[in-house]
Amino acid sequence: MFKHRFWWSLVLSVPVVIFSPMVADLLGYHLPQFPGSDWISPVLGTVIFVYGGAPFLKGGLSELKSRQPGMMLLIAMAITVAFFASLVTSLGVGGFELDFWWELALLVTIMLLGHWMEMRALGAASSALDALAELLPDEAEKIPDDGGAPVEVPIAELAVGDTVLVRSGARVPADGQIIQGSAAFDESMITGESQAVERGTGDTVVAGTVATDNTVRVRINAVGADTALAGIQRMVADAQGSSSRAQALADRAAALLFWFALGAGIITAIVWTALGTPDEAVVRTVTVLVIACPHALGLAIPLVIALSTERAAKAGVLIKDRLALERMRTVDVVLFDKTGTLTEGAHAVTGTAPAPGTSEAQLLGLAAAAEADSEHPVARAIVFAAAHHPEASVLGLRGTDFSSAAGRGVRATVDGTEVMVGGPNMLRELGLSMPDQVQADVDGWVQRGAGVLHVLRDGQVIGALALEDRVRPESRATVKALQDRGVKVALITGDATQVAQTVGRELGIDEVFAEVLPQDKDTKVTALQSRGLSVAMVGDGVNDAPALTRAEVGIAIGAGTDVAMESAGVVLAGSDPRAVLSMIELSRVSYRKMIQNLVWAAGYNVISVPLAAGVLAPIGFVLSPAVGAVLMSLSTIVVALNAQLLRRVDLDPSRLATISDQDRRTAEREARPSIL
Question: Using CA atoms in the order 525, 528, 532, 536, what is the torsion angle rounded to 10 degrees?
């Protein structure tokens, strides 16, 4: 809307300015004269006022009704006064010389440009609720009551008591209970847990979660608004509804300027009328009200926002909400989700403990061969580790007769021997125990919160593997840089307390919240806010959406879910948490530019409005409308040049938070599965 109105208004403004007597006098040229030339500015100026000024007139009326004056009402007042004063002059009523058609045209055009720049910079409005709805499949495989073949039906037709088939890799269409089969479910969208959870007959499954390895039958016990996913939608909606309604900086400045202009206009009219010059009272009052809305104020903030958004994008930060940009400089604590934010969000083999008589290469090779046909994320991590191990990768082991048992592990035949890979349940069922040499390593892994898988060959334990969600090498640098800037760092996760505390200690985090469900994440943000802290929440999952919306600044990792990105005011294009530093630096610098521009724009008014009102008339100086308009244009040029200085700001995350050589070596070592 602003784009189209701007271009049309710009085109129409050219002849309005050219045929303005005031502009001709200022620039010293003769107006072209032909039949009807005197009406070019009035006619086109009226079109600009009605068409281009419509958004401001509607917005001003809305602000007037809500008794919250701001930028829209200030602009509406200025263009309305300019329009009627110019119309009266063109019609020859009262003999006034108040030809403001050119000023009206430029004011509308520049304000449209400012709002268009701002809208383009900020992008489309958040649609977190729509993104949440997209997590559900469009159709479900419903099993008829007579037990026939599954039939695809829209999920809207599902009812409590229906039975559906959920295949491997498919999402659960509604909350329910497994009545046949078992599978590992990816429930990270609900719980935040990075590891898939085994669910079998009698267990409850949640709409939107994914069966990763097997097919199960589920009896539906909740549909529509009663599902857990719908509950998250309601929390996001509530958080959006209760988020701060604080006006942006420019709106607050515009509100103050409106009252200043209105008060100055009223005083001017009263004083000049009392002096016995009502005609001069009209001229002075109109001049005050028109020039009280400087172009500079309309462009001061949009220019800074547009340039800030451009600079941020080059640093991997996408700004969706201008309030987020302003608030980031005041953040007291950054609350990071663990999985996928401070950690890589994917399992990796971080330790091996072969039993006597078995080499590390044999242990990895046999485990990978047994897991090769599994689609489970843990299996893929083991296969990856073996493929990148210099000795295990050349063994050429292959598994056959693959089978999996939910909650226990997998079984396969490798080189004529039976190989099993599984967790503690497998050992308990088989009545086996770990060799002492292996148990010592396993105890250390368990203590730091790592997952442990045991490897058996022909019924004998030949070793164990540790699997963890590896901490990003950039995370420690991010935490330290934030703390150096006086910002506290907190961690929140649905993972077990042991895992969370281990990551917290490793990174030096100030406060850790573990085993937190989605509704509790939202509550934790509220709790931090109740302690008087301004919170920035950084997350990447569906379960983070309510908290992202509730926080003063919601920051989503771009590699995360659509829901997280739509719920946040800021999106990090990559997965580097150091980009949060770029956001803080940009917020502080851009805020300074906003203040500088507003001071300049307001300073122009503080000086020009009294002069236009005639405070120096006793000594023979009165600011003419033409000179006031020229000064207004110069003010616009100053704020535009000042905003351009933002291009010199360095927002490179790697320079704002440098990874230490020790952390870099650790990351390189952990990235090589050959050195575990």
Answer: -50
Encode 408-445: b = buried (16+ Cβ within 10 Å), e = exposed.
Answer: bbbbbebeeeebbbbbeebbeeeeeebbeebeebbeeb
Phi–psi pair at 225, nearest 5 degrees: -70, -10
Q: Would you call 435 helix, strand, or coil by DSSP?
A: coil
Out of 186, 337, 522, 663, pick the active-site residue: 337
What percent of the chain shows pLDDT beyond 90?
Answer: 20
DSSP three-state, residue 491 = strand
Please, where are the H alpha helices in 388-430? Answer: 424-430
SS3 content of the chain, % helix, strand, coil (to 5): 55, 15, 25
Encode pLDDT of 479-521 as tens digits: 999 999 999 999 998 777 777 888 888 889 999 998 787 667 8
pLDDT digits (tens, 9 = 90+) for 242-300: 433 334 566 677 778 788 888 888 998 898 888 888 877 887 888 787 777 656 666 66
97-116 as b/e, with b when 16 or more CB fall inside 10 Å? ebbbbbbbbbbbbbbbbbbb
Tally Cβ neighbours within 10 Å of residue 315: 21
CA distance 546 to 560: 15
Beta partners for 557? 572
Q: Is 120 helix (H, G, I), strand (E, B) or coil?
A: helix
From CA 609, how far away is CA 618, in angstroms rounded?
A: 16
- Is 337 part of the annotated catalytic residue set? yes
- Number of helical (H) and strand (E) elements in the chain, helices listed first: 26, 22
- For all residues of the chain together, what is the average pLDDT? 80
> Are 229 and 132 within 8 A, CB to CB?
yes
Lowest mean pLDDT among 289-303, 458-472, 576-590: 289-303
pLDDT tens, residue by residue, 564-574: 666 677 877 66
- The model's pTM is 0.60
Q: Which of 211, 214, 224, 98 is nearest to 155 (CA)?
A: 224
Give the tokens for residue 525.
């943000």
CB contact set of 57 (below 8 Å; sequence gap of 6+): 76, 79, 80
pLDDT at 232 over 80: no
Stretch (H or E) spanning 389:
none
d(CA 22, CA 31): 10
Alpha-carbon distance values, 653 to 242, 312, 576, 657, 658 (Å): 32, 11, 8, 6, 8
- Relative orientation angle of helices 71-91 and 40-47, to the nearest 10 degrees: 150
Report the side by side order of strands in the sheet with 409-414: 343-354, 460-471, 451-457, 417-422, 409-414, 399-405
Mean pLDDT of 352-375: 90
Choose between 286 and 419: higher pLDDT.
419
Torsion of CA 17, 20, 24, 27, to 10 degrees: -30
Q: Strands 197-199 and 535-539: what pairing?
A: unpaired
In degrees, rounded to 5, the angle at the alpha carbon of residue 48 between the alpha carbons of residues 46 and 54 is 105
| Spatial contact of 586 and 312, defined as CB atoms under 8 Å apart | yes
